[in-house]
Amino acid sequence: MIKISKLILILFFPVALFSQTEKIALSLSEAVALAQSDAPDALLAETRLSNRKWFYQSFLSDYKPQITLNGTLPEFNRTVERLALPDGITFFNRTDLFTSAGLTLSQNITKTGGRVFAMTELQRLDVFTGPSKGKQYFSTPIIIGFNQPIFGYNNLKWNKKIEPLRYEEASKSYAEEMENLAYQSVELFFNVFTEQLNVEATQLNKANADTLFDISKGRFSVGKIAETELLQIELSAMNADANLAQANLNLQNATERFRNFLGLKNSVEFNLQAPTDLPEFQIETEEALRYALMHRSDITSYQRRLLEAEANVAEAKANAGAQINVNGRVGLSKTAAQLSNAFSNPVDNERVSLNLSIPIADWGAGKAQLKVAQSNRELEQMTVEQERINLEREVRLNVRQFDLIRRQVTLSKRAYDVAIKREDITRKRYYIGKIGITDLNLAINDSETARRSYIQSLRTFWLAFYEIRRVTLFDFEKGKALVK
User: Fold this and answer.
1) pTM of the model
2) In 197-290, at which residue ranges do the beta strands (DSSP E only) sit?
3) 20 pLDDT band (50/70/90 cuts)?
């Protein structure tokens, strides 16, 4: 995305920095670039993407070896314990200090959902009182073990399929948010631009109405027009004053909304350049559809949602059956009273366990959960298929309308030029008394209608231009994708 820094504003608009109201000249493309770089919504979108990026990095770490340092430094214990003797039971005070340190290397196994590990550890126990007074070391130079669920739900396998799609979806959603900002900036740009033109038009209308009123007073004084016509012209002059005041108010409101959207803190006065140069390029419907299917986050979302539905079925199926976990470890260990002997001639240390959990009577809960998951999967499949059809229809419709809208701009521009020329000729004819005020008012109204129609057609074209970008995430004018 194009970045417009504050330095550029300083270089190009230095006067704005020392005046109460900044005067900023903007083209439509510059307004879009400013919105996509400095607008508050753009900064929020960047933050959301950054959060998703770091979440994805955290997810990737689950599939890499983990090294953990464990320790108890120290654990102090003072208790009263009992001791069984041949002639009975006695109690004694026990005070000890326990410390330990160990290092563990572990690795998740994606295909099986299990985990393997290797560890080493050294423990020391200092007993200060009691019959076993003294110190003791317990070492485990090496232990290798594993934990493996059987028939269980393998979240590692499913997450490895789903999370990359979620991150890809977030990246595409960011591009879509940027294009949404572009679309909004076009709307707000034209709101201000239209109101600026309305102010210019009402200023011109006011000047013409005042001139016409002055001329009409002279013509009335010599009896060339009736009093009713003079009153009508006077009313038009007063209406021109009211229209100018309303136009200035509308411009101020539109300017404030645009300023807030762009994140500009100071009061501004925009000098917007008319976006009358239309880009020349052709869009093929199938090409646009191909880009949409390639770049839209919806397509990635469809894949993710279907995988999540499959994962839910797999989880429900695993939970409905037997739960078996196999755990095993093998290594070496040694106890000694001296640290120097704690690692010499260690003995074998093995442990194997098989844990079972088999539902005997769950009253159909497991089966019902499986049926719900399967039903949700079928519903998601149908929903995704319909949403995909709607997306394709949306793209095709926007492409078909685009060329029609472009031609409408050309026609409305020609109609506006004709209306202006007609108004000028009619006004001159009225000044020399060839026609009445009714004909002049009709020409003025037609000119104003044509002007509004032309501006509206420009607005419609540029909104359609950025809508095509938004639905395909492709810039057909420059021939490049909008997804990084």
Assistant:
1) 0.79
2) 267-272
3) low
